Amino acid sequence: MSMQGKTLLISGGTRGIGKAIVYAFAAQGCNVAFTYNSNAEIAAEIANDVEKNHGVKCRGYALNILEPDEYKEVFAKFDEDFDRLDFFISNAIISGRAVVGGFGPFMRLKPKGLNNIYTATVNAFVVGAQEAAKRMEKVGGGSIISMSSTGNLVYTPNYAGHGTNKAAVEAMVRYAAAELGEKGIRVNAVSGGPIDTDALKAFPNYEEVKSEVVARSPLSRMGEAEDLTGACLFLCGSGSSWLTGQTIVVDGGTTFQ
User: Would the pTM of this model clear 0.85, i.e. be above it?
Assistant: First the structure.
């Protein structure tokens, strides 16, 4: 697969799944832009490393995912650095104080926490995809992906807030696919089973979750961030040219057992 001369923009590209995707696309000759929350130093280090080792253009832009309209500023800066956009991946998530009331048992859920998760998951996807589609239309089309999770398919303790919003963003993906197809833009989701990232390690029951995943998976291991990059590359390649409005589940077989 060659992505020479094409460009990806992904939200949340400095760690975990997002960082793995940045490097996977750069390795295929794709120019890469990514957003980060607050650590400009780490973002600069990643951008410099990608450019040095893969010979592509790479830039990082600050974005508060709880303020989706900031995407408009991000894309304005993107336009100054890149002359085309072919792929957009909505990946950034929130954690910490922002999810208080959204992460926990059902009886402890609060509207503010749930609303924050919806903003970061669904609203951010909508605004980012809208801005991306405007640019993709100019080059004849492209591919948009929302990262999702199997937490909307399989019960996961304390995950009701995230799980329901992942279900919501997958529905939004289908609507976007139905309306953007005429522009040559395909829209899909990649749903990962529990992946061993810093976000998962923040779960208070991390060890319990990890043990359960290993026990459930026929492959007897936890998923790694790199395990999701192949599906993303496929959805942005010519081999998926007639695939849109779908969710690809990458879960090590855990949702079946």
Answer: yes
Alpha helices in the chain (DSSP H): 16-27, 40-54, 71-81, 111-118, 124-138, 160-180, 198-201, 206-216, 229-235
Q: What angle do CA 146, 167, 65 make, to 5 degrees?
A: 50
Contacts of 201 (CB under 8 A, 6+ apart): none
pLDDT averaged per 10 residues in sequence order, the chain, 257 residues = 91 96 98 96 98 98 97 98 98 91 95 97 98 98 97 90 97 98 98 84 76 89 94 97 98 88
- Which domains, and CATH codes, for the chain? 7-250 (3.40.50.720)
Q: Which residues are catalytic?
A: 159, 166
